[in-house]
Specification:
63 residues, mainly alpha
Length: 63
């Protein structure tokens, strides 16, 4: 490895840095996934409420 200009210590440092970067990326990705999951669930609930409201209004129109 030393022949290629990168010593074992420097290689380990680079690898640890990359591991840290990827770990931080995954933590942030998990946060955004959780937020999107909560948003999606809220939209699903809103959709169900709107469907029910439409159904109620259609029933009133038919009467």
């Amino acid at each position: 490895m030393q022949d290629q200009g990168v010593g074992p210590g420097e290689l380990n440092t680079r690898l640890l840095q990359k591991i840290e970067e990827l770990t931080l990326y995954l933590i942030e990705k998990d946060r955004t996934d959780q937020i999107q999951k909560a948003d999606l669930e809220a939209l699903r609930k809103q959709g169900e409420i709107l469907k029910q409201r439409i159904h109620e209004l259609e029933q009133k129109i038919k009467q």
